[in-house]
Specification:
four-stranded antiparallel beta sheet, eight-stranded parallel beta sheet, alpha/beta, 534 residues, 10% strand
Length: 534
Amino acid sequence: MGNSNVFKRNAGILMAISSLPSPYGIGTLGKDAYEFVDFVRDSNHKYWQVLPVGPTTYGDSPYQPYSAFAGNPYFVDLDMLIEEGLLLKSEVIAVDWGDGIIPVEVSEDDAVNNRYPVNHDGYLGDDRYVSYEKMYNGRFNVLRKAYERFKGKCVAAKLTLDKGLPLYKRFDNFVKDNAYWLKDYAMFMSLKEYFNQKAWGEWDRDIKFREPEAMQRYEDELSDDIGFWNFIQYEFYTQWGKLKAYANSNGIEIIGDIPIYMGYDSVDVWANQAEFQLDENLTPVKVAGVPPDAFSDMGQKWGNPLYDWAKMENSDFEWWRMRMANDIIRIDHFLGIIKYYTIPYEMPDARQGSYEQGPGQKLLDAINESIGDKKIIAEDLGVCMPEVDQILKDNNYPGMKVLEFAFGGDRKNPHLPYNYTNNCVCYGGTHDNETLLGFFNDRNDGELGYAFDYLDTRDKYRMVDMVFRAAYSSVAVLTIFAVQDILKLDNSARMNFPSSFGNNWKWRMQKGQLNWDHLNAMRYLASVFDRERN
């Protein structure tokens, strides 16, 4: 039963696209992404794990995208658009991206005294964090200019004998081939602009309920805006496809990450209203979250509308089948497929919730059928459920172990390496956790007593090295560590603080920060513990 494909003993590196260096405020699919592939390859690792790459909404979380299928417009590389003749360099560097893209001359004294922070590219500003406000205010104006030139090139291509497949044909084919999600997405984003970014539940009733006459009227009225959003996705997927092909040609596979739930203000809910638990006014009846836990005494009320699993089963889980596009897929909050936590919509927090049965093997049968030779990693962290362990075993899905959870002193702790079975993926920490150095720095000697004994050192900086050795030497079929931990950064580089808002998903690696010393250290670990790419 289930997916017969299994992993071989290997290792990977977790690096969000947004965290890559770039001169334009956020990581992209450009030059630095290719250089990161080279780093993974040269360190003899096999996998690059990314966070979800969808278009982010208010709050900037990649786990609350506008679409399960669309790519993030922020990740479209502007230098590649310049090379295509769609933008001028002067247009791009004139924008304040939040890391000081405008070149300035700063005296050495001023730089030393931090009067003017200068980043590694010699520009004014701080390139350690994404400024999403400036990204939102600047990125789409630049992409609009690229779109206007793109339209001109398409017209020119129709008037000349373009070699190979003409540009407008490539674009038209992309739109046609992806119509099953792109048509609704481009319409949704155009309507968001039309209604001043209001959530779709606040739109006029006719378009909120997708009445056919309203759909046609807005499609006609917003045709150019729809074309713009089609163009962004064409560029994203052109660049993403080339990056994946480059990675695969170098023996590197990309582990994609998909959120189990969609946000209410997403095209997936608006376009598939019958497959979610919504009332007659299209308001969620119950929403997703998790009960009180170590992160929060109130639990976490995520607010995502819940699926109507019976309706999804009637369509043979077609929406889920279409999501399985990456080399390897990590399904976030996998527990929700087996048993999911429901919170009444009107409740202020997650304390008054209850568990309900999910689709379980019925959904996994559809996923397994759709993925072919691709593989699944199940994020099975959280409440211990024996039925989850069994379904992972039945489907050959590796679950996750996290070493930050291992050192509380319980010798039976399943996150301790000597308790592993081989079909698991060992992480130092996840995007929701502290960095390893931050974890050790923020605890006193009493709290770290067992960690001192297990890792055989009291030097907190060296403890990070020993965590790597514990993971790489374990029987876990895969080990994956975040770049922040390879760099031994403190919690100023943390990616996400669960149950908090406003300071998440912003960390960026600086140009040149990952160097030969780090490469040789990772290559050494892969060699000594038989995790070399093969």
